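Lecture notes, unit on protein representations.

Consider one protein chain, 963 amino acids long.
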Amino acid sequence: MGEPFSINNKQLRDINEAREVDKLSEFGGVEKIVESLKTNLETGLEDDQSGISTRKSFFGANVLQEPPSKSFISLLLNSLREPILILLGICAVIEIILGATVDESPTGWVDGLAILIAVLLVSNVTAGTDYDKEKKFRALNSVKNDRRVKVLRKGKQEVTSITEIVVGDVVILDTGDWVPADGLYIGGNSLSVDESSMTGEPDAIKKNPKTKPFLLSGTQAAEGNGRMLVTAVGMNSEWGITYAKLIVPPEETPLQESLGDLAKKIGYAGTAVAVLVFFVLAIQFIVEKADDWKWSYMQSFLQFFTLAITIVVVAVPEGLPLAVTISLAYSMKAMLKDNNLVRHLAACETMGGATMICSDKTGTLTENRMTVTNGWFCGQYFTENLETELPSKLAKEFIRNFVVSMSVNSAAFVTYPKDETAKIQFVGSKTECAMLVLTDKLGFDYNTIRKEEKALYSFPFSSEKKRSSVIIRTQNGARLHVKGASEIILGLCDHYLDEKNSPAALGKDKVDELKKIIETMASEGLRTLCIAYKDIKEPTEEITSYPDDSLTLIGIVGIKDPLRPEVPDAIRQCKLAGITVRMVTGDNKLTASKIAADCGILAEGQDVMEGPDFRKLTDDELDAALPNLRVLARSSPSDKHRLVTRLKHLREVVAVTGDGTNDGPALKAADVGFGMGIAGTEIAKEAADIIIMDDNFASIVKAVMWGRCVRGNIQKFLQFQLTVNLVALTIALVAAAAGYGEPLKPIQFLWVNLIQDTLAALALATEKPTPDLLHNPPSGRNERLITPLMWRNMVCVAVYQIAILFMILFAGDKVWNLDENIDQKSETRQASVQYTMLFNTFVFFQLFNEINCRLLNDDWNPFRGFFTNWLFVAIVVFCAIAQAIFIEFGGEALATKHLNAGQWFSCLGLGASVLIVGTLVRVIVPPPTWPWLKYNNVPLFGRKYVEEKDEEMRSVEPKTEKA
């Protein structure tokens, strides 16, 4: 059986790599390639699903091959390469050898074996966590890299995933779209492509089917629109070939970096304690054994060294960066269910501190389901049933002119589902789609009109000019059709079509009348558009613009876009959370004010400003106006960008929504950029940090909750980790200095390390967000990660734990009436009941304090929502059961003794008492305020920054604002 196509990937790649018209001609030009690929430039592919599958298998799929994932074994070997674990393993092996050969005890080797097993256990848990994390991030990346593409198939435009594009497809490109594969330009209107990302060429390249037809994947349509024939996909495309050579380092967030730095500092402190413990134990041992030296005593020095290394292992909080990674991976996956696709990890953290949100109106606050409800045509104002009123009261010639203008001056299209209960699918500008729906209701097929009235030149919508236009050929020459912002287009008109469908002079009285009609529609929350035309001579050469003054007004339409029902409550939640919401829109002042008031953004006494007035303000004047500004109407992308930069200059943490190509600079300038998943252009999505899959403002509020949750989870783990470290290091150092040897053996330290670094990170980093998070003020730009409340909780709880453990260490044998014949020499006290109780109480202190650490505020109840996190409950229960097994069956290998019921009850009771102490601390003890303790002239403890931030936020909210 022969090959299904007469041209193959190698031949197509030769054409793409050469990017020369002569090379294209060698293969017979575009016509021959179209024939070889068995496609059609007018209707696109006619293939069914089996035909698409055949193309994928022959030419390849449009996916980029990810680097091979690391296996569990490779991750395990990588974790075993940690220098500290290697050193600990070597010590354990030497201890096994000495214990089996030199030590007089028949079980002297058991301690070393236990440490070796613990090292392997820690490495396996770390490798398992990394393996699971990588799987989650790969799954998220597959979603993140997916895009929607417009394609022509079976004569109809449809939207499909970029991964479904195949060689032979005809792809439709509009301004701002990413080129999804390599291909050939086969027609369009003034398509220019930014190829800087692939070729380094700084200027956009204007495409031409005859001289510059080559399109490269990974580039962007800078302006115009067009169609391309796909010739190479996936790893066979130019971007795929480049991608195969790239090694992209893993993304590290600012919080991960700062916590990594903090972990180093804590590690240095732990290393210092470990060195002190080693020398204290060694000196004490030498003094004791100076008169009776044996070479077997070298094993004791090795044990001291092993203990010191273990203290370093415990002190170095590897769990801090791990907790960030787990929390981010968990939150990213959960945020996707809340319609937030996170593209940049740092955005999860930053969103938790957002103080300002600058939101678009259309599609974000409103449903983006546009419907033409009102209109002024031929001197008459219509307010309902346009599809029946217009044909009955207006001339057929006028209706034809009107629908032609709506059809050709648009790049959008509408898909009507076969199922009548399903929604109509709008692709492209929703405003244009609403007008296309009206065209269909008036009995015209806009696709047929587009074929009959082919556009000679198209000038896409410009945010600066607030209009779009198109030139079509007529019997007497050509006609320029224009549509755009009502007051702007009206100002360009000097005639209008009267009731006889004849141009009539547009005098001042008529202009005033039309302005009032525009105001009436705008005050009802309708978006208004003017539609006009101008007869011109057919252009004889290629043009990039055309004078659009002296127009004839066809009509004014009012388009309704209902407010999303959930938005008012979402705005209220933002205010409750201390976040100020501003609307930035291209609509006129009246329309914007109506929508802003309805959703709760605009209150009495707050300001609405239009773009032209906004641009006249100096930076100082703008800074003074910003606290009371809530709505920016008739804004340009440069206005939006300036608003964001000035807010950031005032130390605000700014989130911005955007859907247009020109929103890119503002999205990049913001601390967190939200791109629209439905209405957004590819450039807007690429510039964004988070993509809102449903274009809904309520999803932004969920992102705020998740952002605060991520930060809070890291703080919870940090609170837990530092408490454990403080207690463990203090006990080890004081016990050694007081001559009590090693109350906690290396194997026991490693078990504590496993609890605190991995299991606690997994438990605390997966806490879910609650609405209560929105009751707190935002952390802002400079809020410290360790707050005064956290310092209070950690220090007070640690002091209590240390006091109880000292009591067990120094007087436990008397308190519990333990065996008084225990030899007081340190090496014989290691497996005593007293030391077992010390270790057991220490572990249960941490397990119960892990529940305490769920709270960062002054709430008294640490069990609130406890049983909603099954993973947290499971980890606590598992650790408790494992600890019981550790104690009762550990024996000499784990340096533990059997405890009776009374001793167990004492350990559990003392451990649980930390819950009562933690609650009393939160309820009674105020946070520290020590202004004299400073770093870089900023108080380490105190509320100075928080108080300044609160005052700043109060100044932002006007006195006249009403709830």
